Amino acid sequence: MVPYRPEPFTDFSNETNRKAIEAALDKVQAELGQEYPLIIGGKRVKTDASFNSINPSRKAEVIGRVSKADAELAEQAIQSAHETFAAWARVPVEQRVRLLFKTAALLRRRKHEFSAWLMLEAGKTAAEADADTAEAIDFMEYYARQMIELDTTAASRLITLEGEDNDLRYIPLGVGVIIPPWNFPLAIMAGMTTAAVVAGNTVVLKPASATPVIAARFVSLLEEAGMPPGVVQFLPGSGGEIGDLLVSHPLTRFISFTGSKEVGLRIFELSAKTAPGQKWLKRFVGELGGKDAIIVDSEADLEAAAQAIVAAAFGFSGQKCSACSRAIVHADVYDEILQRCTELTRELKVGAASDFSSSTGPVIDEAAYRKISSYIEQGKKECRLVAGGGTAGEKGYFIEPTIFADAAPDAVIMQEEIFGPVVVFCKAESFEQALDIANNTEYGLTGSVFSMSRSRLEQAREQFHVGNLYFNRKCTGALVGVHPFGGFNMSGTDSKAGGPDYLLQFTQLKLISEKL
Ligand SMILES: NC(=O)c1ccc[n+]([C@@H]2O[C@H](COP(=O)([O-])OP(=O)(O)OC[C@H]3O[C@@H](n4cnc5c(N)ncnc54)[C@H](O)[C@@H]3O)[C@@H](O)[C@H]2O)c1
Ligand SMILES: N[C@@H](CCC=O)C(=O)O
C-alpha cells in the first residue's frame, strides 16, 4: 500500500484533459432525466411521490427524477440498516477497507464523468467539480488507511502488565444517519458516508435535496465495488418531513450532519432526547456554517492578498463554508486592497457552469438566489456597494460577484452567513483591532492572515479563534490529510474531516483483559 497523497487536480488547459471533460459532459447530458429510486436493503424502491433535481445553470433542465421517502420508508430504512449492522460489524477491517480502495479506484477511472454530473447538478465549473471529485477520492484513500492504522495499533498503545493479555480494539457504533450538504455533493457526502461505513457502521444516507443524483450515482459505485446490500440505504426526501424521524429514532446510534447552523442546532437538540426503547446516548457530529475573514496587515503582500480574497470569496460563487465573506484590512492599505479586489472582481464572468469561459456558475436554487439577493439589498443599506450587486434569474440563478465596503463590524452582512458571492470590507486601525473584528462573530471555521511580520503571525496563531487558520494563503481549499477541516463555536463540533481523529467519532473502544 503506497503512502497517501492528495489526488492531483486536472489541468483543463491541457487539450487532452479538456476533450475528456467535454466528452464526459456529452455522455452525462445524454443521461439526464433518468429516474432514481430509493435503495433500502439493496432493493430499489420507486415511490409515487418524487421530485426533480434541476440544473441551476439552466433551470428548465431536469437532471433526474428522484423518488421521495416518507415516514414509513424512513422506518424501513432504519430497520434495514439495523438488521445489517451485526453482520457488517463483523466483516474484517481489511474487507471494509478494500471497499473504499476499490470505490476510490472506480471513481478515479470515471472522475470526469462524476465531475460532469457536478457541473450540471451543482453548477460547479470544471475546476471546482474536479476538486470536489478529487476530494471524494482523497477521503476514501485517507480513511481506508486511517482504519488500518486504528485497527493495527490500538493494543500497542497499552501499557503492558506481566500476567495479563490486554487487547484494545475500535468497534463500530451501530446505525448512523448521514445528512450531507449540497455544496460539496460528492466529496462531503462520500467522506461522511464512507468514514462511517469503513468503521463498521451501517447507514441511512439522506442526500441534500438539491443534489440527490450525484449521491445516487455514488451509492451505485459503492455497490459496483462490492458493498453488500443493507450497508448504505439511499433515502432522498425532505429533511423537514423525514429528518426528525431519522434523528429521533431509538435505533439511530449517531447522526453525522453537515449543513447550516439552524438545521444543525435543531438536529443536535433532537438527538439529545432519549426515545422510548433507546439504550445509548446518540452521538452528534456536526459541521455547520462560517463567516470567515481574511485579515490584511499593513505589512503584507498586497497582490497576493487581493488574489486570495477574490478567489476565496467568489470560488463556486461563495457557496463554501470556508469562503472569505469578510475582508478586514488595516487602514494603511485599505484603499489599495479594495481597489485591486474591485479590479479583479470585475474581470470575473458569471455564466453557465458548463461554459468553460465562466469564472463561476450560478447559486444552487431559488431559495439561495432569493436569500442572497435580500442580503445584497441589506448591504446597500449598511455599506457602500463597490462592485457587482446584479442578479439574473431568468434562465438560471446567476448573481454577480459583489463587494461591499466600509462596513461596521456589527453590520448584519458582517455577522450573518450569506453563503453566496458577497464579500464585505471592514477597515481596522490596528492589527489588534483586526483580530478583534475577525473574532467577533458566533462562528469560528476558517480564517487567513496576510502579513510579513512574524510577531503578528504568531499573535494570530494564538488569538485568531478559528479551526482552520491559514497564513499568507486563501482560507478555502483544505486538502484531505493535510489540513484537517472543522471549526469552533457555531461552526460545529470541530470533527476535523480528513484528519487523523475523524474516524474516532464513528467508533468506540473496547478493552479485553485476560489473566494469564
Ligand atoms: N462546516 C463544514 O464543513 C460545512 C461544509 C459544507 C457546508 N456547510 C454549511 O452548510 C450550509 C449549506 O448547506 P445546505 O444548504 O445543504 O444546509 P442545510 O442545513 O439547509 O441542509 C443540510 C442537509 O440537511 C438536510 N435537512 C434540512 N432540514 C432538515 C431537517 N429538519 N432534518 C434533517 N435534515 C434536514 C438537507 O436536506 C441537507 O441534506 C452552509 O451553512 C454551510 O456553511 C458546512
Ligand atoms: N473543506 C472546504 C470547504 C467545505 C465547506 O463548504 C474548504 O476547505 O474550502
Automatic annotation (TrEMBL):
Pfam families the UniProt entry points to: Aldedh (PF00171)
CDD domains hit by this protein: ALDH_PutA-P5CDH-RocA
InterPro entries: Ald_DH/histidinol_DH (IPR016161), Ald_DH_C (IPR016163), Ald_DH_CS_CYS (IPR016160), Ald_DH_CS_GLU (IPR029510), Ald_DH_N (IPR016162), Aldehyde_DH_dom (IPR015590), Proline_metab_enzyme (IPR050485), RocA (IPR005932)
Domain Aldehyde dehydrogenase: 49-511
Keywords annotated in UniProt: NAD, Oxidoreductase
Location of the active site: 287
Gene3D superfamilies named among the record's database cross-references: Aldehyde Dehydrogenase, Chain A, domain 1, Aldehyde Dehydrogenase, Chain A, domain 2
Pathway participation: Amino-acid degradation; L-proline degradation into L-glutamate; L-glutamate from L-proline: step 2/2
Tagged with keyword NAD: yes
Reaction(s) catalysed by this chain's protein: L-glutamate 5-semialdehyde + NAD(+) + H2O = L-glutamate + NADH + 2 H(+)
EC number from the UniProt entry: 1.2.1.88
Molecular functions (GO terms): L-glutamate gamma-semialdehyde dehydrogenase activity
Family to which this protein belongs: Belongs to the aldehyde dehydrogenase family.
Protein name stated in the entry: L-glutamate gamma-semialdehyde dehydrogenase
Gene source species: Paenibacillus enshidis
Gene: pruA
